[in-house]
Every structure is written in C-alpha cells, then in structure tokens.
Design brief:
By secondary structure, the protein is mainly beta. It has one domain. Helices cover about 0% and strands about 30% of the residues. The protein contains no helices and 9 strands. The strands form 2 sheets. Strands 4-5-2-7-8 form a 5-stranded antiparallel β-sheet, with no helix packed on it.
Length: about 190
C-alpha cells in the first residue's frame, strides 16, 4: 500500500459525516465534542470517494474511520495521521476515570491504543497513524480528553499537519491541525 501525502488545508475544519441511525438498545447517545479554542468545529460531510487508508478520515461518509484498512474500531474511536515520516505525533486519550490508553493494554473502561508511530524500529513503515478505540461494550459516561501533541520533529520541518479523526457511535468527525513546534498540542474533549 502506498502512502499518500496529506493535502495542506487553509483552515482547520471538523466535519461530521453520515446520518445518525437509530441508537442500538443499551448504547450511549452520541455526546458533545469540543475542541481547543481556534479549532473550527462543524460542517457537513461530502463524500470524497472510496475510503483511503491511514488518513484518519471517513472518506466515504459511512461513519467509520479508515474502514477496510485493518484498523480496529469500536463505538468510540480516535485517530491521528500525519505525512512527515520522521515526526513523532502522540495521540493521548484519557477516559472519564483519568486513565490513559496505552499500547498493549486496555484501560478499565476498555480503551486500547493500537500502535505508536513512527515507533522505535519504524514499524509503521511511514504510514503514521495512531488509533485508540473502545474494545467492546458501552463507553462509560463522563469526559474523555483527546490530546494530539508533537513529541519531536525528527528532522521534519514545521508545521506538522495532522488530521484528527473521532468516531462517536454512528457519526465520524475530523479536524485538520498544524503543530508548529515540539511540545505543541491540540485538544478535543468528548462528554458522554
């Protein structure tokens, strides 16, 4: 699979995709998603064609992020993708209990971080995408914090352009962000 460069965007935009089907019995209703001041939320989904892999987007507006690309998903899913192979962008998702999702271990609420890119041995092969998802069951009620932070440039020139994807039940959202220096971050907050 070839890596496709993310197109630079003039303004960060969050796009909600797919109409909301009836809620499954026992499932939490989609919650409120807020962002760092300056990150624009809103808009409508425009299908851009078939799903493309490793871009943290719902390209075909079916409510799933990078479906068919081998990424696990759940009722909640958060992803970040960026093109600069050497840059290290961290996806840090904290559940309502204050527990951080980590690679190889599920939180008590069931959040799992699939992988850490680019990784010590470059196991992401230049397809930099980090993915946190709810492994099973209903998400606990409360506030989820989603922070995207530029850990290190690794020789890449700033700004690092990244796409944040969020799936909350039957809807997916996306936002384009620019991280201008090591330590720079953007935050989303989800309240269920």
């Amino acid at each position: 699979m070839t890596r496709r460069a993310l197109a630079p965007l003039a303004l960060p935009v969050l796009i909600a995709c797919a109409p909301a089907p009836a809620r499954e019995p026992g499932r939490a209703a989609p919650g409120r998603l807020d962002a760092t001041p300056g990150m624009v939320l809103g808009g409508a989904c425009t299908t851009s064609g078939p799903e493309r892999c490793f871009d943290a987007r719902d390209d075909n507006c079916n409510g799933l992020i990078d479906d068919g690309c081998g990424l696990p998903t759940g009722y909640l899913q958060f992803a970040v993708a960026w093109a600069e192979e050497a840059a290290d962008v961290e996806l840090e998702v904290t559940d309502p209990n204050g527990e951080l999702a980590e690679v190889g271990r599920a939180t008590a609420s069931g959040l799992v971080k699939q992988r850490d890119c680019p990784g010590e041995s470059r196991e992401c092969h230049g397809q930099n995408l980090e993915n946190v998802y709810l492994e099973a069951g209903d998400p606990p009620r409360g506030r989820y914090s989603v922070r995207v932070r530029l850990e290190r440039l690794g020789g890449a020139e700033p700004p690092i352009r990244a796409t944040i994807g969020a799936r909350i039940g039957p809807k997916s959202h996306q936002a384009a962000v620019e991280l201008t220096a090591e330590g720079a971050s953007e935050t989303l907050s989800l309240v269920l």
